[in-house]
Structure formats: structure tokens, C-alpha cells
Design a protein that fits this description.
The chain has about 260 residues and is mainly beta. The chain contains 2 helices and 16 strands. It comes from Xylanibacter ruminicola (strain ATCC 19189 / DSM 19721 / CIP 105475 / JCM 8958 / 23).
């Protein structure tokens, strides 16, 4: 690929057919307490075309906020920011998170020297201590945001039930052994409404300490937009769900919606 004159990051890119500049997705967050699902917060993800270090880039940010009900048990204030090249290969990632009593920051800068994927990592721990590390990989590496944008552009017509897609994801500390598994197609009725969607269902797994754990299950519209309408999250302190409650600026018609 390098021999054809393509830039190194092109190896890690994918054609974007799923979203356009100005897309905004809003979610309601729910947590399970003693078999009762309680609304505990909201999340919003916005994506637009902008500039990063003078270059054209997709900017996506996700803001997650718990409400007072959740704060009694676990404070959650997360802001994730991602810049990607026009071909969706990652350029920069930042996560600022207040989780419980901890606040920490992760940052990653991506470069692609000699066809490799190089990550310059920076972490600020809850105690204020800073850590810097540079890692170089022969394979493409992603973060929590860039892999999400990439996955929305998978060709669903080529996916087979049970198919596994390696998705190596890094934060400022570790590279995870993680993957997506396509679980098939389902019709999903939105929480608290009559809307129904035809969905692709995918699970995100991570292997740690010799065991595989399903972390998130995605229900994604089976149309060109591939918008997650429901997320089931399996957390260390319980189960949570996110339901899409509003969307605007989508690229294509929501043909997956069943009237």
C-alpha cells in the first residue's frame, strides 16, 4: 500500500458512508437497582468536520452525565473527544473522567511512521501524577471513539452471525485484547415509545486475566446510518442501558424504522 503512494494512515482508514458533519445523537441512561430500571443520566455525541493541527479532521465528542440519583452511589462525569482523518484513521483522543471519587485524564496522539501505528500516550492520575509513554505497533490501533466511528461503517451485507472482528483498543495505560462479535439481526422497540427499528446486534468483548468478558451489546440501525439505538453495558458495579431519545443531522434516511 505504501508503494502505491498512499499515506501510512490509509492502512487504518475506512470509507465513511454512515454519517455527515453536524450529526447529533442524544441518549437516556438507565441503571438497574434491585430489578428496577431507573433513569440516572444522559449522554450526547456530536460529530462534525473541522481542523486538527491545520488538517481536515472529523471531530467527535461524547459527554456522559449522571444525575443526582446516580450521584448517591457513583459519580459519573465523562467527556470523550476524538479527532480522525477524513478516512477515519485516528489522530488524537482524550478522555476526562470523574468516576466515583477519581478524576483522571487520558490522551493519545497518533502518527504513522514507516507504515506503523505509533501512539504517544499521556495520563494524569487521580493524584495528579503524570505518565508519558510512546508505543509503536505494526497493526492499526484505535481508541474508544475512533473504533465506534469505524464500526458504524462496516459493510453489514458481508457480516455473518458469529463473525468476530478484532478491534485492538488502547488507552493511556494499556492495549486491550478486544473484539466485536456480530450476533445477527433483531427488531427492537424503543423504550417508552411505539417506535421499532430493524437492528444489527454486536457485542464488544475484552479478554483479561485469561477470561473473556462482554462489556457492551449494541443495537444498531440496519440502514446506511448504523446509529446505535440501544446499548446494554455490563459494568463491574451493575448493569446499565442507554436508549436513543433524539437524533438530528443524520446522513441518510432512517429506513430501518418500522412504522
Amino acid at each position: 500500500m505504501l508503494g502505491t503512494g498512499l499515506s501510512a494512515h490509509a492502512q487504518c482508514g475506512i470509507a465513511n458512508t454512515a454519517f455527515k458533519s453536524g450529526e447529533s445523537l442524544e441518549y437516556d441512561l438507565y441503571f438497574n437497582w434491585q430489578f428496577i430500571w431507573v433513569k440516572v443520566g444522559s449522554a450526547q455525541m456530536d460529530t462534525k468536520m473541522t481542523k486538527f493541527e491545520g488538517k481536515d479532521a472529523w471531530k467527535s465528542y461524547l459527554i456522559t452525565r449522571g444525575n443526582s440519583k446516580l450521584d448517591k452511589y457513583f459519580t459519573m462525569r465523562d467527556t470523550l473527544l476524538s479527532y480522525c482523518n477524513p478516512d477515519l484513521s485516528p489522530m488524537y483522543f482524550r478522555k476526562g473522567a470523574r468516576e466515583g471519587s477519581r478524576y483522571y485524564v487520558d490522551e493519545i496522539w497518533y502518527t504513522y511512521p514507516n507504515g506503523n501505528c505509533q501512539l504517544k500516550k499521556h495520563r494524569i492520575d487521580a493524584d495528579g501524577e503524570q505518565h508519558w509513554k510512546t508505543s509503536t505497533y505494526r497493526n492499526c490501533i484505535y481508541d474508544m471513539m475512533s473504533i465506534f466511528l469505524r464500526a458504524r461503517n462496516f459493510d453489514a451485507t458481508k457480516l455473518k452471525k458469529g463473525q468476530v472482528i478484532p478491534t485492538p483498543i488502547s488507552d493511556a495505560r494499556n492495549l486491550s485484547n478486544s473484539w466485536l462479535e456480530f450476533r445477527g439481526r433483531e427488531t427492537f422497540k424503543m423504550n417508552g415509545s411505539k417506535e421499532k427499528f430493524r437492528c444489527l446486534v454486536m457485542s464488544f468483548y475484552e479478554r483479561e486475566d485469561g477470561k473473556s468478558h462482554e462489556l457492551i451489546r449494541f443495537y444498531i440501525t440496519d440502514d446506511q446510518n448504523h446509529i446505535p439505538v440501544r446499548l446494554d453495558m455490563f459494568l463491574s458495579f451493575g448493569s446499565a442501558k442507554a436508549y436513543l431519545n433524539n437524533y438530528k443531522g443524520v446522513r441518510s434516511a432512517m429506513t430501518s424504522k418500522i412504522k
